[in-house]
């Protein structure tokens, strides 16, 4: 790709005391590209994602991002106000547990409208119309707009969380095990939906998953982590069809057995 | 009782404490709508009985002041009577029920109907000073939100109001923006009173005892009630005049007049109502 990357990470390390979270990781992500981060439990996927998303202070390394105005900024140099603005406009963050990413005490419509109101929308009717539109895009019936997420199934909550993030047309979305806590059939539907949205909106996404099928379906490229380090990286099909590192071979073999 | 009790300093609080509270008040006046922390003192009344307001009043009142205390618009409730008696005792100040005579007015739940004037101080008793708490319970987070002027959540609350009720159903403690900057909880006054805060010639001070916060609106400050373009702020309207004095532009309370379901709608501001009836008589 000739264009400059949307996000660049260089030599990211995060330690928790003497415990290594992730170590010396560099990566690029381009506009419209989906990157999967896979690896076993404790390999450092969430740590890396949170460092990239500026939700966790890094021990070392730097992350730069090409802002909407075209300038590339070292994210450590953003003011708190700029950082928070970026996070709720040009970025999204989808948590594994929807309760972590939703406001449980207000309706679905208010959940979707929150970002719009945060950036200054002051027309109730328009906010509601947009919320309605997004509900249908994530396949939640419009009549549920005034229901609270507590009245939703797990799959619906996750779809609501996604809608709430996408309403400002972010260019980059971080997801940590987005299909994690769901039943298999619900997972499949959510994956289809996510794939459709990512395509339509030309979203860039960084998706943490321990499920290689999720990586296969959603991502263009993937990195495989073990013990806080990247041990293999490449186009998703290449890594899954022709894994080079013995550990990746083991991972792929283990899912083919079932 | 006429003389100040020897055990108490003037107005109950010691001078050191009053200076500390005055510093907080000065800071609050300098940054309209900003919640200034202060070290709230034990008062001879429980929290919830206006300890924040009482400490503010104690810190601004002088021997020549004339104090009025209202609770729900009335000078005669137990709470109003006991706070007034407290200051008469510990500060030996003159007290009044007349809004025009008072130099300091401590209030819970109302702003007097009689327009306030320059030189007067209105002291509000505040239970919960943080307007963002409803949707964001973490204080670390609400502090950042104020600092960065991130007030979208206030509109989320109003959105929810309209979604659930068809209109903005918040009628008390209706949030306002102070001089285009800080969002502030005006304490549980009816939204009917919100317009009175705007460009008010009097100094308005807010004291929250349990929460240890003081905030202020200096005279002639711009106060806007939050709303949506298509759901503009509106005050309560009453479809009848006061049953006692006939006033039409005032806030009315429903009063049960007997045990057979008799009801009367009358001014909640008892001083205003009496004044009008005296003048008419
Ligand atoms: N807050 C923390 N304090 C101390 N150690 C931590 C903390 N968070 C993570 N770790 C450690 O860092 C390493 C990486 O953890 P991380 O949560 O990033 O892994 P993960 O790949 O997301 O695992 P999982 O698939 O189970 O979610 C692990 O050894 C973990 O024990
Ligand atoms: Mg994890």
Q: What can you see in these coordinates?
A:
- The complex is a heterodimer of chains A (258) and B (281).
- In chain A, 40% of the residues lie in helices and 25% in strands.
- Chain A has helices spanning 45-52, 80-89, 98-101, 108-118, 124-137, 154-166, 184-201, 212-218, 236-241, 246-257; strands spanning 7-16, 19-29, 34-39, 60-66, 72-74, 91-94, 172-176, 204-208, 221-226, 229-235.
- Chain A has ten helices and ten strands.
- By secondary structure, chain A is an alpha/beta fold.
- Helices cover 27% and strands 18% of the residues of chain B.
- Chain B contains seven helices and twelve strands.
- A seven-stranded mixed beta sheet of chain B has the order 1-9-8-5-4-2-3. A three-stranded antiparallel beta sheet of chain B has the order 7-6-10.
- In chain B, helix 1 crosses helix 2 (51-60).
- Chain B is globular and about 55 Å long.
- The chains are: A alpha/beta (258), B alpha/beta (281).
- The interface between A and B is medium-sized, with 24 and 19 residues.
- The complex binds adenosine-5'-triphosphate and magnesium ion.
- Magnesium ion binds at residues 45-46 of chain A.
Please provide a brief summary of the model.
With 258 residues, chain A is of the alpha/beta class. Chain A has helices spanning 45-52, 80-89, 98-101, 108-118, 124-137, 154-166, 184-201, 212-218, 236-241, 246-257; strands at 7-16, 19-29, 34-39, 60-66, 72-74, 91-94, 172-176, 204-208, 221-226, 229-235.
Structure keywords:
heterodimer, A: 258 residues, alpha/beta, Rossmann fold, 2 domains, 6-stranded mixed β-sheet, 4-stranded antiparallel β-sheet, 40% helix, globular, B: 281 residues, 7-stranded mixed β-sheet, 3-stranded antiparallel β-sheet, 7 helices, 12 strands, 18% strand, binds adenosine-5'-triphosphate, binds magnesium ion, ATP-binding (chain A), PhnK (chain A), P-loop_NTPase (chain A)
């Amino acid at each position: 790709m000739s264009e400059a990357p949307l996000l660049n990470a260089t030599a990211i390390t995060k330690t928790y005391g003497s415990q290594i979270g992730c170590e010396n990781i560099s990566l690029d992500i381009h506009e419209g590209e989906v990157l999967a981060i896979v690896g076993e439990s404790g390999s450092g996927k969430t740590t890396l994602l949170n460092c990239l998303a500026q939700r966790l202070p890094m021990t070392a390394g730097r992350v730069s991002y090409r802002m909407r105005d075209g300038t590339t900024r070292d994210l450590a140099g953003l003011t708190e106000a700029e950082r928070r603005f970026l996070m709720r406009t040009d970025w999204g963050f989808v948590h594994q547990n929807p309760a972590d990413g939703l406001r449980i005490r207000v309706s679905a419509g208010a959940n979707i409208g929150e970002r719009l109101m945060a950036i200054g929308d002051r027309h109730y009717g328009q906010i509601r119309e947009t919320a309605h539109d997004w509900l249908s895009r994530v396949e939640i019936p419009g009549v549920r707009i005034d229901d609270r997420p507590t009245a939703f199934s797990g799959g619906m909550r996750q779809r609501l969380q996604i809608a709430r993030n996408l309403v400002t047309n972010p260019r980059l979305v971080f997801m940590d095990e987005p299909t994690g806590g769901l039943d298999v059939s619900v997972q499949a539907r959510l994956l289809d939906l996510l794939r459709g949205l990512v395509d339509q909106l030309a979203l860039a996404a960084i998706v943490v998953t321990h499920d290689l099928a999720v990586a296969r379906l959603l991502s263009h490229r993937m990195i495989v982590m073990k013990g806080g380090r990247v041990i293999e990286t490449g186009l998703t099909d290449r890594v899954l069809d022709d894994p080079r590192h013995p550990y990746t071979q083991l991972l792929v073999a283990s899912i083919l057995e079932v | 009782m006429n003389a100040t009790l020897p055990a108490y300093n003037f107005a109950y609080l010691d001078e050191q404490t009053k200076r500390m509270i005055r510093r907080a008040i000065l800071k609050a006046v300098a940054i309209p709508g900003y919640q200034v922390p202060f070290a709230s003192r034990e008062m001879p009344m429980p929290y919830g009985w206006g300890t924040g307001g009482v400490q503010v009043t104690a810190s601004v009142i002088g021997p020549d002041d004339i104090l009025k205390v209202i609770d729900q618009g009335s000078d005669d409730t137990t709470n109003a009577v006991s706070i007034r008696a407290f200051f008469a005792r510990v500060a030996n100040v003159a007290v009044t029920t007349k809004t025009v005579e008072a130099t300091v007015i401590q209030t819970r739940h109302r702003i007097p109907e009689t327009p306030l004037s320059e030189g007067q101080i209105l002291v509000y008793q505040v239970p919960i000073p943080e307007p963002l708490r409803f949707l964001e319970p973490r204080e670390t987070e609400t502090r950042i939100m104020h600092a960065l002027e991130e007030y979208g959540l206030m509109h989320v609350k109003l959105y929810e109001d309209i979604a659930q009720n068809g209109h903005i159903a918040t009628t008390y403690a209706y949030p306002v923006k102070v001089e285009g900057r800080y969002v502030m909880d005006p304490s549980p006054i009816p939204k009917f009173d919100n317009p009175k805060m705007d460009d008010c010639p009097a100094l308005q001070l807010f004291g929250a005892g349990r929460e240890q916060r003081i905030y202020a609106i200096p005279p002639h400050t711009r106060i806007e009630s939050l709303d949506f373009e298509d759901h503009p702020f509106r005050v309560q309207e009453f479809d009848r005049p006061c049953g006692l004095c006939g006033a039409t532009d005032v806030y009315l309370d429903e009063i049960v007049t007997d045990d057979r379901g008799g009801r009367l709608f009358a001014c909640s501001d008892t001083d205003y109502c009496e004044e009008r009836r005296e003048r008419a008589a």
